[in-house]
Amino acid sequence: MALCDYSLLCNFPKCRTKLSGFAWATACSHIFCDQHGSGEFSRTPAICPACSSALSGKLDIVRTELAPSEQYKAMVLVGLRPETILDISHRALAFWTYQVCSAYICFSSRG
């Protein structure tokens, strides 16, 4: 199955809802639904509810729109060097691979 056939699932323990709209992504490669992200990351210090990593850096947590507008997509990488764009793309694909493999392992182990 191709990566595009998968949906991201909330990494909050016991949630696992399919993500849509907005989500919260962390530097430790976890992603959370807007409800759980808003609640968890409003606290200081922020701690990842999936792996307990401290999230103290300015960009350790970001709220992102999962279906951005065409205008946003047209402008977000404008002016960046090609190697920077490729690096960003590589990191984004690695995130998706991690999420998809984690979900597959999680659901496969449930039998």
How would you describe this structure to a colleague?
The protein has one domain: Herpes Virus-1. The chain is built from three helices and three strands. The longest helix has 28 residues. The protein has a three-stranded antiparallel β-sheet with strand order 2-1-3. Strand 1 and strand 2 form a beta hairpin. The two termini are 19 Å apart. The protein is globular. With 111 residues, the protein is of the alpha+beta class. It is 37% helix and 12% strand.
Question: Which tags fit this structure?
Answer:
3-stranded antiparallel beta sheet, alpha+beta, 37% helix, Herpes Virus-1, 111 residues
Helix-strand layout with pairing:
Blueprint: E1 22-26, E2 31-33, H1 34-40, E3 61-65, H2 70-75, H3 82-109
Antiparallel strand pairs: 1-2, 1-3
Give a quick account of the main beta sheet: strands, pairing sense, barrel closure. Answer: 3 strands, antiparallel
Helical fraction equals 25-40%
What is the N-to-C order of secondary-structure elements (H for helix, E for strand)?
EEHEHH
Task: Calculate the mean pLDDT score and round it.
Answer: 89
